[in-house]
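Example S7 (structure tokens).
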């Protein structure tokens, strides 16, 4: 449990720090776009009221709180599952990444009413219209890790 908690706290802090930097240091909400390594990496501000790629997006309060509740429920379920199954170290780290990322996006929804998305990557003449954030990377990486490591040797 300690590994999950520490990993989740680190992921949450890194995510929130990156969003703070984008919003308040780079003033991305006003600037809109900052070229970092075009076109491979640009900071492009987007407020996401939905889930991935803005699916189920809504400016209504109901969807906002449904997504907050869903993020909290999934996080609690992942922690309970990993603890019950007594999964190994890599699965616990993966769970912590997923939970920390999910809670980072939950915090955005509670505080701002939408998720702060600002990373945008394009390549090879294909322009990606969607932005994402560090929490999304942690959620994706954590989910893949749980798939790969959930059958690993269980802890005693």
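Recovered sequence:
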């Amino acid at each position: 449990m300690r590994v999950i908690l520490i990993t989740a706290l680190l992921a949450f802090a890194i995510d929130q720090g990156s969003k703070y930097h984008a919003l308040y240091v780079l003033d991305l909400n006003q600037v809109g776009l900052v070229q970092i390594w075009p076109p491979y990496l640009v900071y492009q501000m987007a407020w996401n009221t939905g889930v991935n790629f803005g699916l189920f997006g809504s400016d209504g309060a109901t969807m906002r709180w449904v997504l907050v509740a869903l993020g909290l429920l999934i996080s609690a379920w992942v922690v309970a599952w990993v603890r019950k199954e007594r999964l190994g170290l890599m699965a616990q780290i993966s769970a912590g990444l997923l939970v920390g990322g999910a809670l980072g996006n939950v915090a955005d929804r509670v505080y701002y009413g939408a998720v702060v998305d600002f990373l945008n990557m394009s390549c090879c003449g294909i322009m990606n219209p969607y932005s994402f954030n560090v929490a999304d990377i942690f959620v994706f990486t954590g989910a893949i890790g749980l798939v790969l490591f959930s059958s690993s040797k269980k802890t005693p």
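Notes on this example. The chain has five helices and three strands.
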